[in-house]
Amino acid sequence: MYALHCLVAERKVLYLGVSNTPAWVVSKANEYARQKGITRFSVYEGQWSAAEREIERDVLPMCDDEGMAMTPFGVLGMEYFKTTAQRKEEEAKNQAKEGRNVPLVDKPQKTLVANAMEKVAIAHNTNITSVALAWVRTEGPYIVPIVGGRKISHLKANIEALGLELTEKDIEDIEKAVPFDFGYPQTFLGGPGGARHPGDVWITKRFGHFDWVAKPQVRQIFIILEYFANYR
Q1: SS (H, E, C) the chain
Q2: What top-level class would CATH report for the domain 48-226?
Q3: What is the largest CA-CA distance in the chain?
Q4: What is the per-residue pLDDT across 38-90, written as a single tens digit (0 to 9) for each?
Q5: Each residue of 85-128: pLDDT tens digit?
Q6: What residue range is the signal peptide (predicted)?
């Protein structure tokens, strides 16, 4: 942390970010920085989408507690948010193997989530990518997705997501397409949805009423960090 702090002190960088690192490591690093009076991590970059939600177990709560922003990548499924109908059409045209084809990234659950997002997109007269970005937006006010595109239409779809407001029913339909297991101890404390605040913990609710500081509300407009590149 001292080496990173020196970069800030020398004005070579403004803020520190960390990516793909266990939550406990980031927490200990930030606590060390607090004790020594040096620069802490301000932002976390990690993989996150409606089909890959593992980051919600520990990393996202850690960011809330540490006051860190989140810059998720893979929000659009890394180009693999394709419905069953779209995949069949690609196979019929023998296009499935064209362009990027990474089996490790193209997971089965992405098709299931894409099918659910398509229904939401039709209801809002928009497209799947806009729905995917809007879904991430519902999780908090300091989320800045890293998105990419190869066409002007991709850029327009990303901008369109700024004005898309998903309903609770929309979010529920998307998330139940691939049920997410928060794992122990979250499910032990709060059931399938985990425990995000004291009101979710069944043990404490048996012994009284507890108040807590509410999580900041999602702003109407959020920022998209746009990485626009030409891929051949």
Answers
A1: CHHHHHHHHCCCCCCEEEECCCHHHHHHHHHHHHHHCCCCEEEEEEECECCECHHHCCHHHHHHHHCCEEEEECCCHHHCCCCHHHHHHHHHCCCCCCCCCCCCCCCHHHHHHHHHHHHHHHHCCCCHHHHHHHHHHCCCCCECCEEEECCHHHHHHHHHHHHCCCCHHHHHHHHCCCCCCCCCCHHHHHCCCCCCCHHHCHHHHCCCCCCCCCCCCCCCCCCCEEEECCCC
A2: alpha beta
A3: 62
A4: 999 999 999 999 999 999 999 999 999 999 999 999 999 888 888 888 888 87
A5: 888 887 777 765 555 566 667 888 999 999 999 999 999 999 99
A6: none
User: Which amino acid, 114?
Assistant: A
CA–CA distance, 179 with 39 (Å, rounded to integer): 38
